[in-house]
Design a protein that fits this description.
Blueprint lengths: L31 H13 L9 H13 L7 H13 L3 H13 L8 H9 L4 H13 L7 H13 L3 H9 L5
Helix pairs in contact: 2-3, 3-4, 4-5, 5-6, 6-7, 7-8
């Protein structure tokens, strides 16, 4: 039996975000002009105050990852996500962890780092992913009880993937 982690007191980040697999700016909530302005800051204003804004860095990372206004460039996406992670941005932690978990666009997989990023993140999606890591033994020792604990937290936050997992594992009792 594994030592139960205390997840009752884990702070949950309820930050709203848009999930899109499109490279159309409007699908991400931006106009073409806004995308051009943000990318212009990156290209021409290295000392701009936006460089110290984690949301800006995460946004630029999503542009490079998805090819929004620029060619897809996974190395640049990782660079910008890493900047935002250094500033403590939960969404960037999750975005970077997704790349490392999947080996997106040929970027090397790093399940151990992906797990640590998800685990340090307060997003319900990240709790679900930590549960998956424990369930499948991805970069960590397989532990179904810990998996259920993390699924339970994601479920309490109404994460849709965790709701699906409830049918597979009765983790509410």
């Amino acid at each position: 039996m594994s030592k139960k982690e205390n997840l009752e007191m884990v702070p949950v980040n309820r930050r709203k975000f848009i999930l899109s697999y499109s490279n159309i700016p409007e699908d991400l909530g931006y106009s073409y002009e806004q995308v051009r302005e943000l990318l212009d800051i990156v290209a021409n204003n290295e000392d701009h105050e936006a460089f110290y804004d984690p949301d800006f860095a995460n946004t630029i990372g999503t542009f490079f990852e998805g090819g929004v206004g620029v060619e897809r460039n996974i190395e640049q996406a990782v660079y910008w996500y890493e900047r935002a992670v250094e500033m403590g941005d939960d969404l960037a932690k999750s975005n970077l962890a997704d790349i490392l978990r999947k080996g997106s666009q040929g970027y090397p997989k790093d399940l151990k780092r992906a797990f640590e990023l998800y685990k340090s993140c307060g997003l319900p999606y990240a709790f679900y992913r930590v549960g998956e890591f424990y369930e499948n033994g991805w970069g960590v020792e397989k532990d179904l009880e810990k998996a259920k604990e993390y699924y339970r937290v994601a479920y309490r936050e109404n994460h849709p993937l965790a709701r699906k997992k409830l049918y597979q594992f009765d983790f509410l009792h």
